[in-house]
Amino acid sequence: MFNIFNFNILNEVITPTRNFNLLYIILDSCFICLLLTLLILKKRYLTVIFALFGGILYFIVDFGYFYLISNTRSIFIDGVKHNSLYTGLILLWMSLSYGITNFAFIWLCLSKDKYLKYWIFLIVIWRLVVPSITIFGGENNIQTYRTTNAYHTYMAIILLLGYFGLTIYSLFTKKKMINILWLNLIGISVQFFWEFSLLINGIRPYNENSIKTLLINSLIETNLGMPYIYLIYLLVKKHSKEDLKKVEIKK
What we know:
Blueprint: H1 7-10, E1 17-20, H2 22-41, H3 45-69, E2 73-77, E3 80-81, H4 84-110, H5 116-133, E4 142-146, H6 152-172, H7 180-200, H8 210-220, H9 226-239
Antiparallel strand pairs: 1-4, 2-3, 2-4
């Protein structure tokens, strides 16, 4: 399962780029609020909490590590590289949008929510359609850049350790075995839908590195967290239901 990773490829410079405008930010922010509202109305409180946690976590990583520490993240508006304030605000939106939708997607899949196909449809169709609407907002004058060669190898190591640990546990536990293929499917597909929608809509420019970026990001960037997210999921669901009611322990 892990032979697909070539560490020489991971060390090559990949620069994921996004181009969008202010209307895209506004519409996407409205969608995130709508999604959270629908989840709350359907009493998917754990999903909402986990989704918000994902958004905050992504912001800490994106702004704290990628921008402040490693200097691999840059934001340009009208061709001008901006300071920490503008960069922080744009990264906050990006992180909340990306983190909330991804983590909600993951949690709903893990819990096999009875409305799962509708939640996935909402998220996927929005990602595919919204760029077509934002042409009314004018030129895509906001650009983001991120150089990934500095950390993809470490991300692959984290992924390997997580899945290796789950594999060893599944081999020796007497409990129900963990469906590792299902976890991989969730982790890869949630990132793939995101990366694919960015690419086909021109938000991520098509160039010689586009397919490589699509494949490597899909295989690693969200999937690396799936073993750890699954353990969190098991721990939380052991004590709490989706509507935050306590799980009754059978005596």
